[in-house]
Amino acid sequence: METLVVLFEKISKFQPYTLGLLRIVSSLIFMAHGTQKILGFPASDKAPAMFSLSWTAGMLELFGGFLLLIGLFSRPVAFVLSGLMAFAYWLAHAPRSVYPVLNGGDAAILYCFIFLYLVFAGPGRWSVDALLKRERA
C-alpha cells in the first residue's frame, strides 16, 4: 500500500501535462464535428444552412475547438463549449430516449463535463494562456 502512495505522489508531478493532453485530444476530436459541418470534411451528406442552429454549432465546434486546441482564452471558451454540449444533449439527444447509450448522447455528455472541468482546472502546461501567463510574471 505504501508503494502505491509513493508512486501516486511521484506521478502527480505530471498533472499539468496530462491536463494539457486532455485538452488537446478532446479539442481535436471535437473540432472534427465542426470541420464536417462547416468544411464538409470528412464528407457529410448535407451542409447545414448558414446561420441555422446546426451551422452555429459547427462554427462553435470549429473555432472554439481551435481556440481550445491552442489553449487561448481556454476558460471562457471551455465554458461556452460546455454549455453548447449541454444544450445539444437536451435538444437533440434526450428527446429520443432517457438513456444516453440509446440516444447517442454519450459524447455530448462527456464533452460537456470535460469542458466544464477545463473551466475550473485551466488549460494545463502546453497552452498559449500558460505562455502568456509566464511572460507576464
What would you note in describing this structure?
- Helix content is 74%, strand content 0%.
- The chain has 137 residues and is mainly α.
- It has one domain.
- The mean pLDDT is 94.
- Its main location: membrane.
- Belongs to the DoxX family.
Describe the structure concisely for a colleague:
It is found in: Cell membrane. With 137 residues, this protein is mainly α. The protein has helices at residues 2-11, 15-39, 53-70, 74-93, 100-103, 106-121, 128-136.
What is the strand tally? 0
Radius of gyration: 17 Å
The count of helical stretches stands at: 7
The percent range for strand residues is under 5%
Transmembrane segments: 21-43, 49-70, 77-95, 107-128
InterPro entries: DoxX, DoxX-like_oxidoreductase
Protein name: DoxX family protein
Keywords: Cell membrane, Membrane, Transmembrane, Transmembrane helix
List the SSEs and their pairings.
Blueprint: H1 2-11, H2 15-39, H3 53-70, H4 74-93, H5 100-103, H6 106-121, H7 128-136
Membrane topology: Multi-pass membrane protein
Main location: membrane
Pfam family, one: DoxX
Features:
74% helix, DoxX family protein, cell membrane, DoxX-like_oxidoreductase, DoxX, mainly alpha, 7 helices, 137 residues, globular
